[in-house]
Specification:
The complex is a heterodimer of chains A (about 500) and B (about 90). With about 500 residues, chain A is of the alpha+beta class. In chain A, about 30% of the residues lie in helices and about 20% in strands. In chain A, the strands form five sheets. In chain A, strands 8, 13, 16, 17, 18, 19, 20 and 21 form an eight-stranded mixed sheet that branches. Chain A has a five-stranded antiparallel sheet with strand order 2-1-3-4-5, with helices on both faces. In chain A, helix 2 packs parallel to helix 5. Chain A starts with 6 loop residues before the first helix and ends in an 11-residue tail after the last strand. With about 90 residues, chain B is mostly helical. Chain B has a domain of about 60 residues: ENY2/SUS1 (Serum Albumin, Chain A, Domain 1), CATH 1.10.246.140. Helices cover about 85% and strands about 0% of the residues of chain B. Classes of the chains: A alpha+beta (about 500), B mainly alpha (about 90). Bound molecules: zinc ion (6 copies). One zinc ion binds next to helix 4 of chain A.
Chain lengths: ~500, ~90
């Protein structure tokens, strides 16, 4: 069926324009205001049988409401010769002369705008709509009829990386980035438009994605990438083993700075992140960490929010908890054994002690205080760094304790509004007035990459587990790629853990 | 006139919110894609000119049975909560 409507609808539009449709839509289909919602609640009943369901339609000619299931709208159409009706659930147009629903491009645009209006008036994020190709994209698809279909056991996107000395620290980070779903989508969709393609690191990453998904299976050599990173992050230059975590952060930073330089591209998903940058790196990796410092004398709170790209988690026993011998310490001390332990500890209020008095903004005196870190805004990709390497003046050592981490992670308990326990905690299941925020906010993540450091501090080797498709895990050990089980992933030591948000929001309210 | 639970939810905008939540959940769990595929198949078999009513008749029961229990449960819980919250509000005013 075309989207040019039908002759009957076209005649109607020629005579009365789009206004009748718009009015019905804004009052009875989407309800773009509170007033409209009240009218809808009271009057949207079948005029014949008083039902509010059964596929209620409104006559487009005279705003008669009739249900379809019991034939009341049909009856009206026949007796009054009003042959066009609007479905009140979805806003589609039914033409009784054609005997079916008809699509009309012009009215679809009206409907779309109304949906956005409603979302705004209810302060929900943008309503989800599936992607529809524009006319230009339809042309492109027609011109390029070859499609690649990803089947279940496909090895698409898997390629080994040659080790150029001791560059496994780079290889494993590249593997993790290549298999970051949103980053992959960004680059495979050709979103990076570059004025200076020769020396641009982002372009290099972009072509790297093309290489990984080209179908060629030979291991890649990352000469150019390494060279570009060396020139942009000099402290990483040289062939000796580097810390994968440091490399990860440096890479994000270099990419961010490159994007920033040339960014005129429209924002993709998140408009405002705590880093105030719209580059793809910040859209995906940046979250906001809230720090609340509470004065012990006056209870005054000073709050700051800082951007973060990853969360570094301590693995040693809690300082000052007295160790395991003190038994049931109030602080719940001892060393953490799971990622959840680590996060719980990370977001726990911590007493800063008498030697660290801070000037309180409220009472203007130097006082003891407590400090608590919580997640104000979650990133799309949550990266956790387990601090396995301890560097001190006496010795450097590696902590190899087993820290369990889940495949599915819910970050809700570590959010600022939850952890601080001051606001809204009484609302049942979080659906507050007009379904604000918490109603839809879903903070579940799933694991998609794990980087491991095998061996000792001196002779270590980095490898990565990556999720290529749902439930399909692979181990990347430089040029070797082997299939892995989820169990292998979850029982590995874990140095860097990458989680991807399961549910993405489509546009956000600008109020923070 | 007594307002029905349905009307209460429409008035407060909760119905639109819940409807959108349901829509999102169905997209997220792959239900939408599944049903789309079923529809495509039916259209292939019956030809382009199949009417909406005919398609609906063939797809409804299959589509309904594919809605995951967790989604139903979540929605039911949320509807209950909303109605209770509205009731609280009425008591207060
Ligand atoms: Zn009726
Ligand atoms: Zn009429
Ligand atoms: Zn027609
Ligand atoms: Zn570039
Ligand atoms: Zn940036
Ligand atoms: Zn104070």
């Amino acid at each position: 069926m075309s989207d040019h409507g039908c002759i009957h609808l076209n005649n109607f539009k020629a005579a009365k324009g789009i206004q009748p449709y718009k009015v019905i839509h804004s009052f009875f289909v989407t309800s773009t205001s509170n007033e409209a919602r009240v009218r809808k609640a009271v009057s949207c009943l079948c005029h014949t049988c008083k039902s509010y369901k059964d596929r209620l339609h409104s006559c487009l000619h005279c705003i008669f409401f009739g249900c379809y299931v019991k034939g009341h709208i049909q009856e009206h159409a026949k007796t009054k010769k009003h042959f066009l009706a609007v479905d009140l659930c979805y806003g589609n147009i039914l033409c009784f002369q054609c005997g079916d629903y008809v699509y009309d491009r012009e009215l679809l645009v009206v409907a779309k705008a109304q949906w956005s209006e409603t979302a705004k008036s209810l302060s929900l994020g943008e309503f989800y709509r599936t992607w529809e190709p524009s006319l230009y994209e339809v042309e492109l698809l027609k011109k390029n009829p070859r499609r690649r279909r990803v089947v279940e056991n496909s090895t698409i996107g898997l390629r080994g990386l040659i080790n150029l000395g001791s560059t496994c620290f780079m290889n494993c980070i590249v593997q993790a980035l290549i298999h970051t779903p949103l980053l992959r989508d960004y680059f495979l969709a050709d979103r990076h438009h570059c004025p200076q393609p020769n020396r641009c690191l982002v372009c290099e990453v972009s072509s790297l994605f093309q290489e990984f998904y080209s179908g060629n299976k030979a291991p890649l050599i990352l000469h150019k990438l390494l060279h570009l990173i060396w020139t942009h992050a000099r402290h990483l230059a040289g062939y000796e083993q580097q810390d994968a975590h440091e490399f990860f952060i440096a890479t994000l930073d270099v990419l961010h700075r490159h994007c920033e330089q040339y960014s005129q591209v429209a924002p993709l998903i998140v408009k405002d992140n705590p880093h105030h940058c719209n580059c793809i790196i910040d859209q995906i990796f940046t979250g906001g960490l809230q720090s609340d410092v509470v004065c012990q004398a006056c209870n005054g709170v000073s709050t700051t929010i800082d951007p973060f790209w990853d969360i570094s988690l301590d693995l040693g026993p809690t300082a000052g908890s007295g160790g395991p011998s003190s038994g049931l310490s109030k602080e719940g001390g001892g060393a953490p054994t799971s990622l959840l332990d680590c996060l719980e500890r990370f977001t726990r209020a911590e007493h800063l002690g008498s030697s660290a008095k801070i000037k309180c903004n409220n009472c203007q005196t130097y006082q003891e205080s407590t400090k608590q870190l919580t997640m104000k805004q979650l990133p799309i990709v949550a990266s956790f760094h387990l601090k396995r390497f301890e560097h001190s003046s006496i010795q450097d050592k590696k902590i190899s304790t087993f820290i369990s981490f889940p495949e599915q992670l819910d970050m809700t308990p570590f959010m600022s509004h939850r952890r601080n326990g001051n606001n809204n905690s009484a609302a049942p299941n979080g659906l507050h007035k007009n379904g604000e925020d918490a109603a839809f906010s879903d903070n579940r993540y799933s694991l998609f990459a794990v980087i491991n450091h095998e061996g000792s501090l001196e002779t270590g080797h980095y490898t990565a587990f990556i999720r290529q498709q749902r439930d399909q895990w692979f181990k990347c050990d430089d040029h070797l790629i082997t299939r892995a089980r989820l169990k292998d992933v979850l029982t590995s030591e874990g140095y860097l853990l990458f989680y991807h948000k399961q549910i993405l929001e489509y546009g956000r309210n600008s109020k923070v | 006139m007594k307002t029905s639970p349905h009307q209460t939810l429409v008035k407060a905008g909760d119905r639109d919110g819940l409807k959108e939540l349901l829509r999102r959940r169905l997209v997220e769990c792959g239900w939408r894609d599944e049903v789309k595929l079923i529809c495509k198949e039916i259209i292939k078999e019956n030809g382009q000119d199949i009417t909406y009513d005919a398609l609906l008749a063939m797809v409804t029961s299959r589509a309904r049975s594919r809605v995951p229990d967790v989604v139903k449960k979540e929605l039911l819980q949320k509807i209950k909560n909303q109605l209770l919250a509205q009731e609280e509000k009425l008591k207060l005013t």
